[in-house]
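Q: Convert this sequence to structure tokens.
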Amino acid sequence: MNPKYSASRFSTYESCLLKYKLSYIDDLSVDRTFDIQEKGLVFHSIAEHTEPGESYESVMSRAKDVIAKSDFDKEKYPVEKAIPVFYFWWQKYIEEPLKNGYSLYKEHWENSDLDGAPLCGAVDALLINEKEKRAIIYDYKSGSSSHLDGYTGQLTLYAYMIAKRLGIKEEEIPDRIKCYLFYPLARIKEANLDTQEKIEKFTLKNMLQYKFSIQEYEDTLEKFKKIVEDTKSRDWEKVNEKDSTISYQCSFCGFCGHPKYCPNTFKSGLTFPHSAKVSKIERH
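A:
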């Protein structure tokens, strides 16, 4: 069983108990990718390898190479069109803080605990000012529309872990830690980006800040603590297809359509590709 909790693990528990059991109790994984996920992975790869001071030409050249080697519908998901947006964002929101005492951590893995339960999380871009004990958290989202719904818990968990590491008092967290989602691909296909002004406007529209109060912060952490306790006390042997939920989230679930592991989606007509395989994760 996977002992570590994360934002995605908490979200899975709330959305589908069967998937939670398969993923975190039975430790099963599926070597299956979805087109909608692939374009997100491509963008993350481009962003992850971008360096401070890198030229636009260099970023664009690398992006074209990564996109060309990837297997997703490039007409439906024009990731290349988002590179000018990303580059403007990078210069303004990454490079500017670096000039003011912040250090950058890309794809940063943070490990912590919540009342003894081990936590982990990967922050896409983390800026920390050690001297002032301040941090800026950015999470890239590749959705077709920009929104905070469904992601506030993830940002809260990141803020909690970073604040704990920096020794920031709870009442100071909303002021010292800023949390943002960045949607570079939101409505990118129909966007008109033929001028710098339009690029800037598009970028600002698709960067969302999550402003939370101390009460909201505490309530979210209490919810996570309760989920931890629920996962420990639940009889997982009794969880079966009746505990699965067919929803939009199935679009991203590797088990979707499998006759053995997710009978509900299989019976509804969704299919599991013959090329995909379910395997046991070996933990050491």
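The beta strands are 28-30, 103-114, 117-129, 134-140, 177-182, 207-210, 278-280.
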